[in-house]
Amino acid sequence: MATKASRTVAEHEVRNSAYSRDLLLGFYRMLVKCRMCDEKARILFRQGKYAGNFYSAVGQEATEVGAAYSLRDDDWIAPSHRDWTSNIIKGAPLNLCFAQLFAKATSPDRGRSSPAHMGYPPLNVITPASSIAGQLNVGTGVALGLKKLGRDSVVVSFFGDGATSIGGFHEALNFAGVHHLPIIYVCQNNLWAESVPLRLQTALKDLSDRAKAYGFPGVSMDGNDVLAVYDAASKAIVRARAGEGPTLIECKTYRWYGHSEIDPAKYRTKEEVESWKRKDPIPRFEKYLFERKVLTDELKAEVAAKITQEINEAVDFADQSPYPAPEEAQGFVWAPETEKGS
Amino acid sequence: MARTLPFIEAITEALHQEMERDERVFILGEDIGLSGGVFKATAGLHEKFGEDRVLDTPLAEGIIIAAAIGSSMVGLRPVPEIQFTDFITPAMDQLVQQASKLRYRSAGGFSCPITVRICCGGGVGGGLYHSQENAAWFVHEPGIKVVMPSTAYDAKGMLLAAIRDPDPVLFFEHKKLYRTVKGDVPEGDYTVPIGPAVVRRPGNDMTVLTYGYMTHVSLEAAEAMARRGVDAEVVELRTLAPLDKETIVRSVRKTNKCLIVHEDKRTMGIGAELSAIVSEEAFDHLDGPVMRVTGPDLPAIPFSPPLEKFFMVNTEKVVAGMEQLAAY
Fold it and tell me: Are A36 and A70 in contact (CB under 8 A)?
């Protein structure tokens, strides 16, 4: 990882002066918000406040924030099971995100999908399915549609290293390359596909090398460096909006916890986990901000307090929301009359 | 103004007219553009509408369907083609996990108005991998509509209805009908609604429930039986999902007997569900068991002509089934 990552940093050394204070603080607030929401989701699950499961992305926040922060409302996200917080970054109300966990009638899908499988149609976050790489195929189709309609919106597709091993990954990226589609494939390589180590999934060192086979750029980077991810994503988004086609971005990162909340992840060594915790994207970015006097202890406390309050309100909202009535299971199989005859 | 067209040309005409009428419609698939399709169902479209709306794709069914699903989510009306239903399996994840569930899992936030044209069926020497039907796989997936017309008139009208439908529709085209079946087709725009079955031959002595190519086989058998004094009512389902239970049950309550005829494999096939519906909703009216004439439970339709003949339901087999049922 070292060589490519350091190259990426070097290419973007201008960034020290390129970011406004507001943008840097925006990244920071969002990183902390994603972390705190995710940790809260874990706690709530362990408290038995909701059933099912949760797929924590703690440790991977810089990949989500860096890639999705600057998306417009009309842009799309095709998330996987570990991208619950991508809804938050896109702008979904926190109340609804927690209602989703609790499977309440107020959630965007009215209690249908599993807790972490959240989409938000008003802001074009596709409600995910569980099948691996399914989303990046559908996201590729969305990109085809956007191109055909002549729009300059883009799609960001999030997926893990595990999704790069299945046939659908090849079909989607090949197709996107052929048609120069406006899509950014963001691979969050956290080294483990459930319990399968990367060495048993691929002979590649850098998953971005796969892009060569599809005829578009691929870049690998330190996925715990929010600015590096942001830079790469921004470049890819500009390229996609201009009709120049897709980019594959590999963010080398790590999930701190198991595949899901019921996975103790005993297949990993303590040393490995600890070494990655030391590369936590948040303290590292804080250090950067402190050095540039963008962040102060006071502001840091203020950010945390505000998010805590927002989360508490959202959890209350979710808690107090009603469950869907049993017979509501029958809804939304077919189009309503109002959609017919178009 | 109607004129006689082969089944396949009714399909081609529907595509031409709908693409002219609605610029959101585009087609995609293998060999559909430059070559006009292996059966020429998409002939002339590439010349008329260009590559942007007639897209030759990689030979990769998963992304063909995914490309259709995704582009339908932003407001387009894609009509992907699966060249042979035998090749639909790589797209199963997209059809079953995405298309059928998208509206449901997003509580109506997203929809998927695609029409997948699928060439299917045996009896033409296609062998194991160019003869299958497997419509039953999809009938088991609420959220997807499944249709299979048997006449040129319905082929055009139901295809237009399917493309305009806000839900995903699988449009099965039996390849044996393409050029052997001809019929009157109006030149102008019309739709045949998805859902209603149709009584193709009214009768009083037994109901034959069938669809697709087997409609023609069943009608021939019914005529043969009429000469022996058995007056069968042939009901063509046309839409396999959702089923027109009302027409099915009404017919069986009238005739008191029910024979199901389909080409595809027997066990857990569409006939199994039809039989259950009739048993549940017309039990008191039945004078005999619900019977089936179907393809055998074999992995696929074998190639060698005598072997294929063994698999295929034909008029003689349907007549034998009708005779057996008539004896009750």
Answer: no
